[in-house]
Amino acid sequence: MWTTAHIYGELPLFQLRSLLLTRGREALCAAAQKPWGVCEGKGSGVKFARGSSVMRQQDQHSEKPSSCCLVSLDRMPPEILLNIFSYLDVETLLYIGCVNRRFYHLASDNLMWVKIYSAAFKSKGSHWKGTSVKETATRASLSVEGKEAGHWKKEYISDQISSVKAVLAHILQPINPYTGLPVKTKEALRTSGLGWAIILREKSGKEHVMRHADLSLNDTSVTVTWHSKNWPHLATLSTLDLYGVTPLFMNPKRASESHCPRWQSLIGKYDLSNLSSSTMVGCDRLVRIFFINPGLLVGLWQKEDEVAFVMANLHYHYLVERSTWGSATLSYEVPPYRPLLDGSVEDGLSGYQMHIDMHGGGVFYLCSTFRNLFSRKGNIENGYMKFVAISLQNNREHLPLIGKVGLAWKTNALDGFIKNCSVVDVTLLDERSKPFWCVSSPVCIRYVAHPSDGPNFLGHTYCIDYMDTEGGLHAELVWIEETEEYFIVSLSLYLSVEKINSWFGTKNTEF
């Protein structure tokens, strides 16, 4: 059930009142000049007292007002307020419902909203066409009988959300045969005005809502950053919730406005109580960064040990759906894959394709695709099936990382660069070019004292590791001092047996 609270969770009360006074100015002027108007007089204008629900009227053509009346909106009879509200646009009407309890109930009037609904969704109200004004009013009255308060407002919001989702679903229909991902993900993000927000929850239950400050659209992922001067104290925080926030009305020009009506879709919940050295992935002289799976980085100041920034890395696979199709309390569930068994799974997996990107702060260090990956039956380590993308023994497969590897960060006042950290985006397609496992996550390059058995390289050996419940990645790198660059000399992909069984509808443990 959609309520105003689901749409406006981040707009303070004083801003709501300000919007009522500023954006409702013309509508209230028009209402005030009606026969039943609040104030009388021709050629008059309406002025508003800032910070209060008050309307003043005075003669614009004289230095001294000939007549002046002061009327409090809060004290007006409901009939007059409903007439005033009937002149407001939908957005302003929704805002008014957040001012106070009385305005919420008045701004949810069924008779007012059934007219708005029928005008917005004419196909559903087509049975009203071709009738007189009197007959239309009569049918509108009948349509609200027996309906709970706010019924047609909820219907309007629900259908408006559905219409936005339908537009996005249409945009995302074309699939790139090479990546297995929608061709127009970036267009869908721009068209919808989709953004992201975090809710920081204190141990006392108090919540802090923050909309993203920066975002970067990569080839197969988006990097979203939050920074502020007024973070709550880290010691008081317990959890962080990540949401997609989508404008109720698709208007790219107004999508950047913080008070634009939006709905929330829960993406993930994170525990902030276990930030320790075991989760730290890098540091510089100003900040330390901590990784929370999946895909979240929390930067803490070195001196104060307080939050400096939060960074989320989100893969394009089902990104729009996860950011729009969930609710304020439930995440979007990816539809189950229909397995197509042909017997080949019994002999292992073959014909897989992996695309991998490594980047940090808009700079790409690696962008490569590996085709015809395979893993034979029984090639399982600790519940994960292993695929080799780059062989340690084959020098022709070894790849360099281009540029100085690191992760750029910034806040309102400072910025920095954390060496040997980056974001890895992995897109794995099965033999039918369907996305099998997709992930976007921060990683770090760590020194390895005892490298794997293989050729001896002239340089120190390092590694990159990532693992979750569905898959993982292990890479070994050699630092070449002469050219000051890393070379990937080994790259292995791991898929969990549980994920493979779920994908193919099997129950094998060793295939």
TrEMBL record:
> Which PROSITE patterns does UniProt cross-reference here?
FBOX
Q: Where are the transmembrane segments?
A: none
Highest taxon above the source species: Eukaryota
Report the Gene3D superfamilies cross-referenced here.
Answer: 1.20.1280.50
Classification via InterPro entries: F-box-like_dom_sf, F-box_dom
> What name appears for this protein in its UniProt entry?
F-box only protein 15
Sequence ranges assigned to domain F-box in this UniProt record: 70-116
